[in-house]
Every structure is written in C-alpha cells, then in structure tokens.
Amino acid sequence: MKCLSPPSTKTNTRVLKEDFKVEPSNADAVVGTPLVLECQPPKSNPNPVITWEKNGRTIQPDDERVRILPDGNLMISPVVTGDEGNYRCVATIDVIGSETSSSARVDIHERPTILTQPEDITALPGETVTIDCNAQGEPPPSISWQKEGGTLPERRHSIRSTSLVISDAVWQDSGVYICTAENIWGSVRAEAEVDVNASPRFTVRPMDQTIREGEDIEVPCQAIGSPPPALMWKREGGEVITLLKYVEKNMLNFE
Major place of localization (predicted)? Predict the structure, then answer.
C-alpha cells in the first residue's frame, strides 16, 4: 500500500500588492534643464513593467531626450516647451493587468531671452530717440532700462511698451543704455550706444601771453563736440599754422 502525499496548494500567483510607494509629484521645469519624475510601483511577483503616460497617451522613450530609468523614474533632458502636461506612471503585469499612479502636472517655464537687440543710434540735438528691446520668457519678463554710469534723462524719458524713448535729445544724453529682461527664473541684458551730435564749443580758450624773444611758448586750446571737433590754428590775418589738430593734441607750440 502506497502513501500518497496530498497535492501541493502552492501556486505561482501574479499580483500587484499595496499601492504605489512613490507617485509622481507636480513639478516646475525650465527649458533647457533636466527633469526627473519619480515612480516606485507596488510590490509584485514578478516585478511589473513600468511605462509612462502624458495627457493620457503612452510615452515612447527615445533613449536620448526621454528615458525611463531602471528604477522606473522618467527622465527628460533637456526640457522643451512641448513637455508641459499631465503625467502618470503605469505598472503592468501580463494577464493580471495594470495599476496607474495619480496624475502629476508639469509646467514649463523659460528664462528670458532677447528677441530684438537694441541698436546703436546717432541723433541730432532736439530729436526724439527710441531704443527698442524685445524679450520673451515664461512667465513674460519685465523690461527695465538704465544708463551706464548715469541716470535716465529726468522728465524727458518714458517707457513705451518695452522701448526707451528720450525726447528733445541733448549732447549729455550720449552714452550706453542697458535693457534688462527679468522673470523669476533669470535675467538677461543688452546694450546700445546713443551718440547725440553737438556743435563744437571751447572749453579752454587761447589767452594772450607776453614772452621774451627766444623763449618757448605753449598756447592751450580745447574744444568739445560730437563727433569730436578738429582744431585748426591760424595766425590772425595770415596763414594756417597747423591743420587738423584734434582734441587730444590741443597745444600750439613755438620753440
């Protein structure tokens, strides 16, 4: 007589136990930077296959910019504006089925970039000077203006949209103007030079001098203007002594 053991009650069950250990969280990402969405699926036997959905559609990893990491996390690098949307992690076991995580919202932001570079401007006294500067970003950046080493013309400047407008330009308005675009994710700046032409005027005038015969003499003379004026020396009632003496060479010498 043989003694037969009862049939085994063990079976190879395929189940998803418990809930997701870690579910994806809402995230803010900046264009050009990496983003990782975390997902740790429920325990199972065997381990589930992890996939991801964006806006209800299965994501197809490309092994370059969008990847599902071995631990189930989703990596996107670098982020682009089209990555904005709602993401879910899906854990699947053949035959048994799948479990889906809660949804996480990803919002994409952009650091400011300059779209229209301000251009250098040459103007005449009394003219209106307009310097354009356009930028983009998410959220849209604010635009501010300043003058390098100085202040904006008081009561003669205004900001129209994103452009700086200077009315009744004077020679003192010449200089470098700086446009700054800024949002919470960063800032960027651009520069333009303004040159307001001005008629020459003397800052140092020649003065009468009395000297002994044979002594050296220097006669200073300085003038300013925009563009810088050329200085010419001439003996009264006579010939031109020196042609095209510039401001840097403003001294008439007799030896």
Answer: membrane
- Alpha-carbon distance values, 6 to 2, 9, 44, 86 (Å): 13, 9, 28, 53
Domain that holds residue 31: 15-109
Q: What is the pTM of this model?
A: 0.66
State whether 189 and 233 are in the same domain.
Answer: no
Q: Are residues 85 and 144 in the same domain?
A: no
Q: Are residues 19 and 99 in the same domain?
A: yes
- The model's pLDDT over 139-172, given as tens digits with 9 standing for 90+, comes to 999 999 999 999 999 999 999 999 999 999 998 9
**Domain boundary at 163, 181, 196, which?**
196
Into how many domains does the chain fold? Answer: 3
